[in-house]
UniProtKB/TrEMBL annotation, chain A:
<keyword id="KW-0472">Membrane</keyword>
<dbReference type="InterPro" id="IPR012693">
    <property type="entry name" value="ABC_transpr_PhnC"/>
</dbReference>
<dbReference type="Pfam" id="PF00005">
    <property type="entry name" value="ABC_tran"/>
</dbReference>
<dbReference type="GO" id="GO:0005524">
    <property type="term" value="F:ATP binding"/>
</dbReference>
<protein>
    <submittedName>
        <fullName>Phosphonate ABC transporter ATP-binding protein</fullName>
    </submittedName>
</protein>
<dbReference type="InterPro" id="IPR017871">
    <property type="entry name" value="ABC_transporter-like_CS"/>
</dbReference>
<feature type="domain" description="ABC transporter">
    <location>
        <begin position="2"/>
        <end position="247"/>
    </location>
</feature>
<keyword id="KW-0547">Nucleotide-binding</keyword>
<keyword id="KW-0918">Phosphonate transport</keyword>
Automatic annotation (TrEMBL), chain B:
<keyword id="KW-1133">Transmembrane helix</keyword>
<dbReference type="InterPro" id="IPR005769">
    <property type="entry name" value="PhnE/PtxC"/>
</dbReference>
<dbReference type="Pfam" id="PF00528">
    <property type="entry name" value="BPD_transp_1"/>
</dbReference>
<feature type="transmembrane region" description="Helical">
    <location>
        <begin position="64"/>
        <end position="86"/>
    </location>
</feature>
<comment type="similarity">
    <text>Belongs to the binding-protein-dependent transport system permease family.</text>
</comment>
<feature type="transmembrane region" description="Helical">
    <location>
        <begin position="112"/>
        <end position="135"/>
    </location>
</feature>
<keyword id="KW-0812">Transmembrane</keyword>
<dbReference type="InterPro" id="IPR000515">
    <property type="entry name" value="MetI-like"/>
</dbReference>
<feature type="domain" description="ABC transmembrane type-1">
    <location>
        <begin position="60"/>
        <end position="243"/>
    </location>
</feature>
Length: 256, 251
């Protein structure tokens, strides 16, 4: 599905690389959680996969096509097949749940139809269905700013599903939610992953969530991939290595 | 404890500025010793003369129409330009700079100057006044709205790009709903300002209640002047009230 070869990203005016020589291959049945400290390159990695971030080196093959040299118009065609959810939900305020979900289809439709808001019966039915899938049918016509954090993220997921994506990316989608709500969101993501056979790649801080839901864990440190494998192989010492830069401290030894 | 040396210097500078400004403007409160003259003058304003009320109301609506058209057209033209004049949505750096400079140039020309120029080419009446107000408002709205665009939350913009929407459409959909209430309140504020401006433009022949006020004043019809002033006050208060009602409904 996705092959990443020697992916490197260096931001201007930065001494070190945000991503350094990352190579891996992701398949449809993967539910991937990416672990790493803030600044380890998780966000950069996720953003490279749908072309929001241009790599400075290496290749990304999406369905066999190298997208690293795509222009904006070609990237648009990649992005519309790639759903993405965000830490702060990034919904459009003042629009309803339904309207927000419909914007998920923008990549496939003409600008004119998008502008005047003309949708076919099938498109409206699809929007209704994905809203039902995330359990928000009763709130479909409510403005998104009146929803709770968990409900907002469900709208974010519904918007992504409205793209009928092949891949779902998540940049810290539960980092501003409480633990119970985070679990609900992850259950929903797992359900969608299994039902739609959707390659899912999620950045997350919480090791417990990653171990419970992921089928594969990636750990990044200082832009380098230091672990790639199933959750049960990700040991405590590897966890410590991921999250510390100093010699191991009592704090880390005590808890996990 | 609370004051630093620099505070005293600031106060000193302000005091010096006040002193010189008073010298330049011949500011002198003792001139009010002839206050009785003003009372005598204002006494001539009474009683109000209602005989010309229908014509006055007609002129009032003309003023309202001038102000409304000038600000609505100003906003409509400025909206798309604002996206070119905002750092985060401009298609290129050169276009951004060019639009910015053009907008501030347009903004630097007062309505009255536009009015004086246009009146000579378009003749007397409200039409040149509308164009004058519109031009200045394009400059003002262009600046205000582009600043709102720059301050908009970038999250939704990124989300719209991630969905695969075309860039301009992504910007439009992610930014406009966010800034709309602020745009609307700026509009009502500029509408109020436009009413006052159209009064001044009336003085130079731009029509409306302003021109009538000026004519009545110049022909010593003070009992009509008082009614003109009253109508203007009621109009401004009514617009203010209407504006806050509409704004509360939108937000």
């Amino acid at each position: 599905m996705i092959q990443v070869k020697n992916l490197t990203v260096r931001y201007p005016n930065m001494k070190t690389e945000a991503l350094a020589d990352v190579s891996l291959s992701l398949e449809k049945d993967d539910f991937v959680c990416v672990l790493g400290k803030s600044g380890a390159g998780k966000s950069t990695f996720i953003r490279c996969l749908n072309g929001l971030q241009k790599p400075t080196g290496g290749e990304i093959h999406f369905d066999g096509q190298d997208i690293s040299f795509h222009n904006e118009e070609q990237l648009r065609k990649v992005r519309r097949q790639t759903g993405m959810i965000f830490q702060h939900f990034s919904l459009i305020p003042r629009l309803s749940v339904m309207q927000n979900v419909l914007t998920g289809m923008f990549g496939y439709r003409s600008s004119f139809k998008n502008l005047i808001g003309w949708f076919t019966a099938e498109e409206l039915a699809l929007a209704k269905k994905v809203i039902e899938d995330v359990g928000l049918s009763e709130m479909a016509y409510r403005k998104v700013e009146h929803l709770s954090g968990g409900q907002k993220q469900r709208v974010g997921i519904a918007r992504a599903l409205a793209q009928q994506p092949k891949i779902l990316l998540g940049d810290e989608p539960v980092a501003s939610l409480d633990p119970g709500t985070s679990n609900h969101i992850f259950t929903l993501l797992t359900e969608m992953h299994e039902r739609l056979n959707l390659l899912t790649i999620i950045n997350v801080h919480d090791i417990e969530l990653a171990k419970r839901y992921a089928t594969r864990i990636l750990a990044l440190k200082d832009g380098k991939l230091i672990f790639d494998g199933p959750p049960e192989k990700f040991s405590d010492s590897q966890y410590r290595e991921t999250y510390t830069s100093e010699p191991q401290t009592a704090y880390f030894d005590a808890g996990i | 404890m609370w004051f630093k040396k620099s505070n005293f210097i600031t106060v000193l500078i302000v005091l010096v500025l006040i002193y010189f400004s008073m010298r330049i403007t011949e500011f002198d409160l003792t001139k009010f010793k002839d206050f009785r003259n003003m009372i005598d003058f204002l006494a001539q304003w009474w009683p109000m003369d209602f005989s010309k009320l229908p014509g006055m109301l007609e002129d009032t609506f003309e003023t309202l129409a001038m102000a409304f058209l000038g600000s609505v057209f100003g906003l409509l033209i400025a909206l798309p330009i604002s996206f070119l004049a905002a750092r985060n949505t401009a298609p290129s750096k050169a276009l951004f700079q060019f639009t910015r400079v053009t907008l501030s140039f347009v903004r630097s020309i007062p309505e009255i100057v536009f009015g004086l120029i246009l009146l000579t080419t378009l003749g007397l009446g409200p039409f040149p006044a509308v164009i004058a107000i519109m031009f200045h408002n394009i400059g003002v709205f262009g600046k205000l709205v582009s600043e709102l665009i720059e301050a908009a939350d970038p999250g939704p913009q990124e989300a719209m790009r991630a969905v695969g929407a075309k860039n301009w459409l992504a910007n439009l959909f992610s930014i406009l709903p966010q800034i709309w209430p602020n745009v609307l309140s700026q509009f009502f504020y500029r509408f109020e300002v436009a009413i006052r401006t159209s009064l001044i433009l009336g003085f130079i022949g731009g029509g409306g209640i302003g021109q009538r006020l000026f004519n009545d004043f110049k022909t010593f019809q003070y009992s009509s002047v008082s009614l003109d002033v009253l109508i203007i006050m009621i109009m401004v208060i009514a617009i203010d009230f209407l504006a806050s009602t509409i704004r509360n409904r939108v937000i």
